[in-house]
Amino acid sequence: MIRFGLPLIVFLLFLLEGTWFQIFVPPSPERDIVLVPRFTIIAIVMISIFRGAGSGILYGIAVGLLYDFVYTDLIGVYMFSFGFTAYISSFTFTAVRTNFWWQFLITLGSLFVLEWMTYGLHYVIGYTDILFEDFFMTRMLPSWILNGTAALLLIYPFQRFFHRLRELEELQQR
User: Where are the transmembrane segments (predicted)?
Assistant: First the structure.
């Protein structure tokens, strides 16, 4: 039963991004900023750190494809961006797996890379015409602050989950 825990958590975070967040913080024409929650990428970064690059990339590609199907008409941008972000965030050093602040910094960097990459890919293929300065001030920076705050709240529960998962796997191998 525990093997279904991780996919269920990632899927629930995906649903939380698209439903509850839009209810509690609806987009408004009165605000200049756009808040984009990326709770699943926080989970994918933690999967990459604790389970390795292979698992992180697999989850990244699956969630990215889900993003492409649900939120865009262009298939592949989020799939590539999530998979690549999972790959570059997969540090297997013991110091990273045990230190909350290293995980937080890697998550912040991954959030920045993901937003920058998706914007860049959309800009290059002509899907958006927003200048980077406008994108950075109205969407990237506010979303980065929002998701950084969410990362502060989510990293510790993910640490506990992965430590518990490792203990259960060790028990099953005995």
Answer: 6-27, 39-63, 69-88, 100-121, 141-158
